[in-house]
Records
---
Amino acid sequence: MPIIVNLDVMMARRKISAGELAERVGITPANLSILKNNKARAVRFSTLEALCRELECQPADLLEYREED
């Protein structure tokens, strides 16, 4: 899939664990893991907004487009 989720990069930069971020955002650790590991097929805008708020970043910091080979 050409959309890459850079959630793990932002989490490392902000020094926040997956469990803590999941709790702050209001999603399960399992769903956060699915996002973090590029297994998600969709992301709700409300989830994206909450992630950006907690990580103090922009959506483009979390999502990247790469053309498929």
---
Amino acid sequence: MDRDVNQANEVAVAEGFHRERRVLLIEPVEKDMLLMKDAILSQSPLYDVDFAMDSAEAQAKVKDRSYDVLVVDNDLPGASGEELVRNLAKLVPNCPIIVVTEVDSPGLALKLLLAGASDYLAKFGEFQKFLPRMITTNLHRAIIIENLKEMYDRLEQSSRDEALMNRFIMSIHGSLDQSDILERATQSLLAEFKASRALVCLIGDPDNTMRIASQVNRDNLNPFSDKSVLFSKYHDLLLDVGERRPLVVLQDDTYAFAKDVKSELIKHHIQSMVMVPLLYRGKLLGLLHLDEHKVARLWTARDINLLSRIANQLAIALAQAKLYQIVETQSTSISKLTDLCSQLTQVVASTKEMTERTESHEKVRIKLSTREIEVLKKVALGLSNKEIAEELHITEGTTEVHVSRLRKKLNLGTRAALVRYAYENHLS
């Protein structure tokens, strides 16, 4: 078998293959180690097999190198297999651990699985022949689990981002006073993005100059003045409609804009910053600015996307505030504007209703999964479990499980109570 394995390896090398997976065999018995190695390489020469004879050597190698699969003998000298599996699972939590043992015991298997093992193989007969398929199966399982975790993390991040947006919207749309809106916006930006400074610049009439409307900072940093070239230079870029996009600058950047403002970055101890245009119906209103003075923060695509959405909401709030101010100023002398004032009051009332609805949805979203919310909406429409299952393309049994979970999570005893809860929380 060794000759066949060596020939397979030679063919793989000759054809330019590289070893894609690395397996660590932790086995004190050399005979068993060679059997497992030959079995693995006979299935695929693309596996790179490494060895360890005891617990200490295994943990040292895991810390030093990256492995795709660990094969652990349960009967290592000086350490129990359960203890080693638990330690390895902590060191490499996403790496499958397969335990091989002389003893075939359901109780032992359960202990090892609870310690962190992903599979279990008894050393009976030609056990090594089952190892390659077991490695492949556990690798695929680990990849699927990792992909699911990444998907879950993305969904969680998306949920957090939506919650941030809801908090910001409720904050700035709760007022029609421009100064109040600007103060709320800068305070929210500073807190939500944990930046060193946050400010909003607006373009003033009639000279069309960019001026600071509101700014807050941490750590007693020196405030900016309206004469700062940071904002005037960015304003010049924004005058070109094709260039109206967010701008990220690090202090050590070497492109033209960064060189032009470097003295300002140094003066205000800015390691990195981001600026986003404020646009309302295609008209440039101003900009948002955030910066970091302690580290050269890398502003991510998520940050830029959130700031762009926030800028859109702020531009709408400022436009509404400006319109409201005009109406308030002229309503005493122009009776025809009375109706417009009434409409603006309705806008405020609808904004409050939207805020209440958003808060209600947020509370429900925190408690329930996306699928549970879908099921709850269908229950509120009076559909039976069978009808819900058909509409959502799931089984009736799955629907019953979702309805049961909804009752438990919401502490509601009847289907009628679920319907009432959905209506009260605007899910109908």
---
Amino acid sequence: MFDELSEKLEAAFARLRGRGVLTDADIKEGLREVRRVLLEADVNFALTREFLERVERKAVGVSQLRTVSPAQQLVKIVHDELTAMLGERREGLKLSTVPPTIVMMVGLQGSGKTTTAAKLARKLKGEGRAVRLVAADVYRPAAIDQLETLGAQLEIPVYAERGHQDVLKIARHGIDEARKARDRVVIVDTAGRLQIDAEMMDELVRLKEAIRPDEILLVADGMTGQDAVKIAQGFNDALNVTGVVLTKMDGDARGGAALSIYGVLKKPIKFIGVGEKVDALEEFHPERMAGRILQQGDVLTLVEKAQGAFDAEETKRLEKKVRKEGMDLNDFLVAMKQIEKLGPLEGVMKMLPGVNAKMMKQVKQADPKRMKHLEAIVLSMTNKERKDPSLMNGSRRARVAKGAGRPTSEVNRLLEQFREMQKMMKKVSGAQQAGGKFKPGMFR
């Protein structure tokens, strides 16, 4: 997500940082480069022009600053304007005070609408809300089956009627069923089409009038760039959508759709799809996303992901055990598995401040099966060896390597990493016992 855009913007700002003192001519040159990068990322031309005009107005006098690095100040201005371009502030789902809240999902065929409906249902269920899905896509043969399969997987009820194509009646019956069951939210999955046409829009308009949804979420494919913006305009003109979900943002998206859609529609991006799994739906925070684009990280989202992914009881048990007895390889494996729940290392790294394109390249080249290999090595040891890794002499290492089907060098590397983590845990524990007073250089 935004890899290409981030890399090029970072290169543009790196040239400015290297100059120390900036002249107005330097700033103009830098902004010309930013303009080129945004247009290459398929950002709307008019929005790009307005964006740069605002940045240039705010950048007047930046070159005269003495207390703050002018280049850093310029990056701050670009960050603020990117945030504004992406929607200024987070806007969540508007939940009705009188349940059920009705959410109508619309979009073109192939945009990921049905999967997104299930992802959203899972998210709401995780927040403690009773959710029901309504299968109102009666034209695509596999749509009802797909939604029912996802519903069964997530243990979320799905209302469907087979044998007729009266979408309005199906939606109304599904909402009635939800009211009887006292569900808090109903998500209606509507039919997509291969292109926007009058017949399709007319049916959606009639459905909107019949069920009076609290939210109309447009699901748009983030990979389609400016086409996504044109499609969004068509849906908004007919339905007055309340928000957007951009899907496939984990792919090679240049970012043009995300950076243009709010500016054109003035409708918030509420969620982004970042993978095929049912948990791969993120809330969209404009300010955090601007930070990611400028490689400033997104620690808040990382913390939220950790809170949702980590087993709180297991984490507490591990912390208590490590403080009392120290860490062994069993604990190390548990900790690694907890971290693995955050998703691919590449995605986690992008949320850390200061991670640049070079670092990301190294991460991408890393073996994606590394965690599985690590687990195989640890599980090939006896319980005694896991509890006391100092027992791991040459012959034991060779035996473990053979059992795990990995080279001895990987066993050696794992044990070295474990020793480093042990040292770090001792220092952290020592600092906590000393009242949190960290001495200079204690973590070197």
---
Amino acid sequence: MKILFITHYYEPDSGAAANRLTRLAKQLHQRGHEVTVLTTMPHYPTGVIPPEYRGKFVVVENREGIRVIQIWLLTFTNTAISRRLLSQLSFMVTLALRGIFIKRPDVILIENQPIFTALAGWFISRIKRTPYLANISDFWPEYLVTAGVATETSLIYRVFKLLANHTQRQADAIVTLYPPLLDKVKDRIGEIEHSKVIYNAVDFDKFKVNTDDVEFRQRYNLGSERLVTFLGILGAHIDLETMLTVAKHFANHDNLKFVFVGAGQQKELLQSALQQPEYSHCVWIDWIDYHDVPAFWAASYLTYWALHDNPLDQMRFQAKLFEAMGTGTPMVVAVHGLMHNIITEADAGITVRPGDTNAMIDAIDNLMDDTTTYNRLSQNAQRYAETHFNPKQNADDYEMMLKLIARSTENSPE
């Protein structure tokens, strides 16, 4: 098949979406498919385009046999949602213009977030008369309500809901990353002829339990202490207040350090808090390249994070969970809902109710002292990941869905 990926996120950008889609594109290419990627100039998550890409409208590269077409967009280091929407809107325009000149593929995979990328992808699919798979990775536009940007009755919410519904109804197939997300899509647009839940996967060749972390520790002056870590985007869904309260409790704990790696709208709030003396045992790292992520997990004794107590956030399934489990890193998470169910089923960590700082503190304390429980959770996490988050099965499922809709037009006239 000739497969066109349309995505806002692709390597060398960092983050869960870029990692996931880059791996999938490479897997499909290795299976003999001709893969082309339409994406942005590298910029995520810092908002800074590297010097070698600046001042150019299009940069085309061949990466391991995959043609990657990178297109200009407005970028901002300010993470305010208005700036992000403006950046995404600019890419919609340049993507649609460049997409007109793409050779007609057999099938298109469109990463459905941001919504403007989905809209440009739908336009390209109509121009090229090509079926497309909508790959939906987050709750949109419901996120606008959770983030406090809009209400369900506001004009902006109703417009974005209309756009999301349109691009998803027009899709020949829909894939979501977890079950509640597919349920939410069906609530909005009705039944879908071709749909499937395909969980993310763990690249076990990259994320190994015994990865050397010495150079990583030295580079960031982390010493030999046991590290309680957080890695991810500091969006509105993260309950930073709870996480900081928990971290402060361990200020005088021997041989323990908290490490935060993250960008996003709460970054400045975190930076400001960590300037206070009671957080002298905490380290903030702006961001790390994807090739450093395995060493980050190898350095982590355990990982922790907290989500807010609302229905949408409790339906999330965050990508960091895959990597933590794949590397055997026990987790302490303030969450209920889907992630609670998975962590509990796997016996891979400890979950507490959102906002329950005392329970989170107790859980971390216990894992610091109870080696038997710690080792059990670590081994169970890795075993569960190997069984349920297999990258080969992930690629098999995507290939099957793409073939399903591409095959339906094989005999159609040009």
